[in-house]
Amino acid sequence: MNALIPAASRRQLLQGAGALVVMAFAPLEGANAAESLADKSMHPAELDTWLAIGRDGQITAYLGKPDVAQGLEVAIAQIVAEELDVPVERVSIIISDTAQTVDQGGVSGSTGVQRGGVTMRNAAAEARRLLVEQAAVKLGADPDRLKVDNGVISVIGAPSRKTTYAALIKGGRFDAKLDWNGQYGNGLTATGKAKPKSPDQYRVVGTSPKRRDIPPKVFGKYAYAADYRPPGMLHGRVIRPPVAGAKPMAVDEASIARFPGAKVLRKANFLGVVAPREWDAVQAARVLKVTWSETPGAFVTSETLFDHIRETPALKREVVKTQGQVDEALKGAAKLVEAEYEWPYQSHASLGPGCAVADVRADGVTLWNPSQKTFATALGISKLLGRPVETIRSIYCQGPGSYGRNDAGDACADAAVLSSLCGKPVRVQGMRADGHGWDPKGAASIHRARAAIGADGKIVAYDYLSKGFTRMEVNTFENDPFDFLAGMELGFTHEPAATFGAPEDVYVIPHRRMAWETIPRMLAGPSPLRTSHLRDPLGPQIHFASESFIDECALAAGADPVAFRLAHIEDKRHRAVIEAAAKAAAWKPGPPGARRGGSGATLTGTGFAYANRGETIVAIVSEVEIDRASGRIWPRRFWVSHECGLVINPGTLKQVIEGNIVHGASRALFEEVSFDKDNVTSLDWNSYPILEIEDAPESIEVVLVNRKDLPPSGAGEPSTRPVAAAIANAVFDASGVRLRRIPFRRDRFKAALAKSA
Amino acid sequence: MTDQISLTIDGHKRQVDADPRTPLLYVLHDELGLNSPHFGCGLGQCGACTVQIDGKPTRSCITPASNAVGKQVTTLAGLGTPEKPHPIQAAYIEEQTPQCGYCISGWMMTAAALLKEKPHPTDAEIRSALKGLKCRCGTHVAIIRAVKRAAAMNA
User: Which domains does chain B have, with CATH numbers?
Assistant: First the structure.
């Protein structure tokens, strides 16, 4: 990714034209060497950009990635504290703000620690090296004879000869260079001369200090993006058409005259209202009389979605992997296994509809922005408003949990357009129907697999195809106006990249073809079914199919599903993770169906699935309890083994994995976007049910395989990947019914149970 | 039409000018500047806006402000403080329960009411009391752990 905001021009912004933007905020946060924001180093090759030590010895580190409440902040603080030999309490982290931090790529692909932590570690190690070097001069001792404890540098064996970080730096700058690789975004790396510690020296990394955002949350004080209230702020609501694709032809402004101060704001096909009071804005948006253009419905219906995917000619086909002679090997197969799996559109459905605050002024723009892409949003909105990006300050503020590209960026663009039209700061929050109806959707797809089982009971040939909508009709990086609903309504258009995927696995199979095909979107422009990334973008879809299919192959081979997988895997890391889950669950060997239990009203069974996502490997054993009468599937217990290299904070890591498992179970069991030819019809929690407490697992046992010898890899998404297949495999074990369509709704499963009986 | 409405929020008397039919949530968030609770659905379906009115968990997004007049409204900020946390707050911190935390007013205000009524609830009673609340981050298992931990503090 290219530099979004050149450091020099940002400096100019802060000193010149954008002074107002800066003044809108409290002075520089944290213990900072810079006197004000205008002095803050912003070049990735300067150590001061990343780290500052205050006169009181407090350390502030500047992370250019948001923490979406998965413990990234405390993990980064641990990494910094570790290298500097201070307690974690001494380290504060400033999170993703275009005026204070460098673009490290946003929340993206579970890379918070994996990528974001690298430069933070290097910077902290370099700061320690420089300070120890200065201390050596001051104390008249060789640097090798010095030790650091709690920010105090002393001579080994002569503890009275000492100084401190604070005394050495005196609240000033390091004025030291790092070796920067010239990249911004996820690829950014800056390295000092110092060699970071080896893991066997760790004292802070590998422990579980608590998250610092939790106390203000539980005492009701935490400020989310929704809680910023700049003076003079108006409340905005955006009105979107009842039939997707329709345009506002006429608006009766008198229809909202009774709401004090309420105003209609309209530009091209973008239509909103603002009012000083939120309840007035809500009511005005509800009653505003709009004449919409006559538009034929653009969609097939959710009932015919999978036929549509099957029957629509592919726009693009890509063979991801091919080896051997697949077609010949399949023809000559002694035993052929074939299956097709279906995954519907799913909604991000964040707990609160998108909410953001924007203050668009003549001399600068401020965004209180819960999008995962703080920097990319600034660029996209600069193009949307026709303003230089240097005049836009984008500040990440947490919103309701996001697990990819939800509606936060759209809310930010809505607020920015409304603010630009009325000249006042505007806070926009959608209503529930805006969230469910108009947020970006996880892609719908079908997955076909065929395999030949050889005489030795192993898979000889494997042909796999994903077919669906491209995963990114709007980009997860909101670099361009056409990535926002408001941008599309203002006339920005583009042709999305056609991209899908095939399983990531290490199964050794002689003949193989892994391919994908995409079909065209049903509606260009502002579509409520536009796709974007939803947690582990296509991982759950693809691996629901592939890991269910491996189970079907094991059945055909009469093999135990765990042993069957191991028979096809040589990679020792993968084997270790699979074995750890089986051991934790006290896995009882036998082919699918062998762990069947219960009788009469209740059936029980246990299933296995595993996947890697990049370097992170996850294996899951799922135990289900089935209620025959209702078709309810209760995912009662999970055992999860998880290997993501070096573990920074086992406590928060376990919590994140638990969340992934439950979110994954919710998507597998309950979640499906309904729509008719005109629009999305699942617009609330009744029509878009998710997993609730009565169906929550009784226990989730997490085994962390801590590989201190390997760099940390991601954890925010990978464990959600094999959940659906683990449940489906458990359901087969329990009932003999093979579930190939997501979600495993009670009515459908009940019917399938009755049919199989 | 706006009226002067007198409310008692977290033990403090507050006066606001608002249409008495305004949902209490907007009065708390916008007129009184509280950061919690939050808007989740405006339909009474998720619980993110939950406060206690005279001790009873209530969805403030569908409760007219006038319904709270003369009653005690309690938010998370009034449940306890860092110095003197309510057991459910202490347990949430100890268990590191929330992820985004946007929904926690629903779970915590409801759990606090449950614990008052039943200091030592069973698993089934916890699940039943918390029915209907939504959490998108999937922290349900941690929530049950926190309620049990808070119950243990009730000794």
Answer: 3-78 (3.10.20.30), 80-153 (1.10.150.120)
